[in-house]
Design a protein that fits this description.
Elements: H1 13-45, H2 48-85, H3 88-123, H4 128-143, H5 145-160, H6 165-188, H7 192-217, H8 233-265, H9 269-285, H10 287-305, H11 309-336, H12 338-343, H13 349-362, H14 364-381, H15 385-410, H16 414-419, H17 421-439, H18 452-455
Length: 458
Amino acid sequence: MSKFEKDLSRGSVGKQLWAFALPFIIANLIQSLYSVVDMIVVGQFSGTASMSGVNIGSQVTLLITNFVIGLCAGATVLIAQYLGSGARKALKSTISTLLTTLVVLAVVMTVFMVFFRKPILHLIQTPAESFWEADRYLLITALGTIFIFGYNALSAIMRGMGDSKNPLIFVGIACFFNVVLDYLLVAKWNMAASGAAIATVFSQAISLILCILYLKRNDFVFDFNLKSFNFHPESFRMLFKVGLPTSVQNVVVGLSFLFLTTIVNTLGMTESAALGAVAKFNSFAILPAIAMSSSIAAMSAQNLGAGLQDRAVQTMKIGTLIGFSMSCVVFAIAMLFPREILRIFANDEALVAAGTEYMRSFSYDYLLASIMFGLTGLFIGSGHTTFTLFNSMLASLLVRIPASYIGGIVMGMGMFGVGLGGPAASLLSLILALLFFFSGRWKKQVITKGDPVLQRQE
């Protein structure tokens, strides 16, 4: 194996999983600092209208990013299983096809968002006071789509090959630039949401460039020359077979939270800004569980590729326990210090009060989701992304949105009622995930020796 590859099918499961997951968790926490720092700096120096604009603009941007992250998650599974089974040619063709596909998608999505951002903002009931800020934020981040797509793709590839440390280094450097630029552009030069967007895009570009330079200098399997950007139909079919359900799942979840934003926008600008502040804290709060889920997926995929099913299950159990333990700590902090957390973002007492209501009810989601994500990691690692899509769609469309609307608007419970939709949706997802696990149906192979990608091995 090369220096980019690590065999996760041998040695202590607990030690291997923790060594792989810890850099991934830290990298995700650092990456989430992009949007959190944006919100804090904008809230402290530009006011509530700008905070609302950043929240709304970032929700729309996240919807697009989540689609790509889902496709990249499928690539991580394929790469890990091919690596575990020794399918070198399939590994290379999958990487080439993924990067080629994402370049095309980035161009298409950039053009789409530039021309349709205003209708989208009107559609989600963006408050008039924050419309211009949301529009500027969305335009600038749309122009940086290629950097966002590229970094997520290379990180997913490296994780599939067992390397979670180098992405941590790259994102750490990028975060430093993001914090510095936020301070200069927003606090010093009063560029509000536009400054926050420029800082985020520039930081993502730094991450991507550093990643490419490092890989090129160390003889990575893909050399990034134009002639190497090839499209292999069989690899594309497998990428979409495994990755598309996760992409659609991420989009559906993102849409459900976008609907929540729309619901809260009708309550007022202060509530919209409060939702954005809590959402940024939530991005931190849920990250350990999400990162552990992705680590379980990558490690279990390698083990399943090597035919070690029991080791894959053990990976899931240990990873879920670690994720749940960390989520318990976050839950306790959120319940004990909600007002102190929200004051980090803004000193507006009305905003703090509205955000505290929402956080009090939504925080229970941290506990339920951590267990559900652990099981989902195993299902994704085994290639059963269609089930995770079905599960997520049911929870998001049939529970999260209706429960939030009924609790917040129909029953007049305000932000507390809106927040109940989160844990209600996770409870249904967890029940369905447990039923699928104990049924044993996840054991059925999705990536088989009969697939054309594997048949093309030399």
